[in-house]
Amino acid sequence: MQVVVLLAGVVDPKWRLGTLGLRPGTAQVEDTALPRKLSPFDEAALETALQLRDADAAVTVTAILTGGAESDGLLRAVAAFRPHRAFRFGDAAMSLWDPATAARLLGAAVRAATEAPALVLMGREFGDSDDGVLAPALAEAEGWAFCGLAHRVALRDGDILLHRTRGARDEILHRRPPAVVSITNERGNRLRHPLMKNVMLARRAPVEVVAPPTAPPPALALRAIAAVPPAQRGGAGRVLTGPVAAQVEELAAYLRASTTGAA
Amino acid sequence: MHDLCALIPLGDPSVADPFAAVAAAAAIAARSGGRVRAILLGRVPDADAIAAAERDGATDILSAAHAGLSEPPQAEHLLAAFEHLLAAETADTLFLLPAGAVGEELAARLAIRLRGVPLGRCTSLDRDGGQVTARRASHGGRAEARLTTQAPRCFASLRRPAAAPAAPGAARREIMLDCPLPNDVPPPEIRHTAGEQARRLEGARIVVTGGRGMAGAEGFALLRDLAALLDAATGASLPAVDAGWASVGQQVGQSGAFVTPDLYLAFALSGTAQHLAGIGLNARIVAVNSDPEAEIFRVADLGLVAPWQEVVPELIERLRAR
């Protein structure tokens, strides 16, 4: 069974985005100077794929990282987890801002891995530009089944079993392959640590790169992007210090006043 | 200029605020004119839903019912029914769905299915001539992108705007659907989770949240005790969910639930931009953190520089004694 995990990486959230903007004269984001890492959702998708591989010798895992050469270090980090194959798909000019175009490109990426995908895993958000559109868009564009925000995946008798939480209910869904599943983070899919020998092997191994097909002009154009300051909040900013008992007494009084006043 | 049409899936309690899309469409119409259509889709006609859509500013309401929909409805069935309803649409239209997992999946899939443009979860939308301009958060809420399209059909999800325009009154129409629904997708097995999530995050007046610094599930048990005393919901940061101390449904932030309580009690969390993006701007934040440099204090109405291990048990005791 062919399992493909699509990874995007994000700009390291610890780094300031002050230089973020568009490359002059283009609709491409200039963030290549900022360090990249896998997002928590990339990690959850990758771990899910690795668990499926570990559980079933018939599972073949291909990890695909989108992006340009600035992502090669990240690809080596992914390769250290020893998927059956790992390659980078794309170049610095590839943009995923237009979901319809992105879905076509991601479909091409999956086909570069296998002509018969059974399961495509993605994080619930794909990279810095996506808020959950790309996984269902890919499924719809390819005519594959879809399940969003799963936190556990199993394969049983050719079916895909998916656990997810929707509001106050837990759901178990069955999907027939091929299917796209977006993964959310949970304790059970925290990414393992790679073996040091595999890290060293991945550092020396060549990076496989697959070029994307030429994309048509996007229907949705990115016109501007910039870092934004934190939203202004009206808090009084009163910070208590001193003996904990006195702080707690003041907090209790604050809560009593707040809850009584609102009642 | 694009027409405005809110698509409202009914019958799924996990859709916290289905009529947010109507209110968002009404806010756009208040800025740039035009009528606000709302298409409500459920298993049976729902007079309360029609009234709610009218209150939120819909001027033309189509209430569509399909007896084949389950409760909660399956996404594939909603897609088929909405696709049927929109098949005859010819005018340029900006379709709006409520923010959240269900609305966002429907928006993305409908857009691709109907050869429209999916705009994602937008913070604002504007129409000018034949162009739609969308603003969207990126980079975990630390940046904002401006995108434009001239596509005739656009699909976006939005949260409820802060200010709602007056409702002008609506023309109403009800129809029964009998279009075929896919029968090759088995319904999910549903298990309702235990009491800890009985108080929903969305709509809660008080939210008690723990972060990475809670250092274990035991701390979250105490937070649940505190939440019970305050009739509050319990939330968690992404690292706390990652660690397994709280469930996926309790995650607050850019990638989790968006909450709009009066009071937000944040214990042992640093206050990253990604987390704060999940808290409404009108919420008063109370922060407890042993690190006086924690970012959360910059946005707090009241802050306690103290370890949660000392604060929470003492606070519970005092609240019980009142």
UniProtKB/TrEMBL annotation, chain A:
Give the UniProt keywords, A-Z.
Electron transport, Transport
Q: Known Pfam families for this protein?
A: ETF
User: Keyword Cell membrane: yes or no?
Assistant: no
Gene3D superfamilies this protein is in?
Answer: HUPs
| SUPFAM superfamilies noted in UniProt | Adenine nucleotide alpha hydrolases-like (SSF52402)
Molecular functions (GO terms): electron transfer activity
Using the record's annotation, list all stretches that form the Electron transfer flavoprotein alpha/beta-subunit N-terminal domain: 26-219
- The molecule here is called Electron transfer flavoprotein beta subunit
Automatic annotation (TrEMBL), chain B:
Instruction: Output the Pfam families linked to this UniProt entry.
Output: ETF, ETF_alpha
Question: Which Gene3D superfamilies does the protein's record reference?
Answer: HUPs, TPP-binding domain
Q: Which cofactor does it need?
A: FAD
Record's cofactor remark? Binds 1 FAD per dimer.
Domain of life where this protein originates? Bacteria
What SUPFAM superfamilies does the record point to? Answer: Adenine nucleotide alpha hydrolases-like, DHS-like NAD/FAD-binding domain
Provide one Gene Ontology biological process annotation: fatty acid beta-oxidation using acyl-CoA dehydrogenase
UniProt: FAD binding residues: 212, 251-255, 289
Domain Electron transfer flavoprotein alpha/beta-subunit N-terminal positions:
20-173
Molecular function, one GO term:
flavin adenine dinucleotide binding
What UniProt keywords apply to this chain's record, in alphabetical order? Electron transport, FAD, Flavoprotein, Transport
Residues covered by the Electron transfer flavoprotein alpha subunit C-terminal domain: 201-279
| InterPro entries with a match to the protein in the record | DHS-like_NAD/FAD-binding_dom (IPR029035), ETF_a/b_N (IPR014730), ETF_a/FixB (IPR001308), ETF_asu_C (IPR014731), Rossmann-like_a/b/a_fold (IPR014729)
Q: Which family does it belong to?
A: Belongs to the ETF alpha-subunit/FixB family.
Protein's name in the database: Electron transfer flavoprotein alpha subunit apoprotein
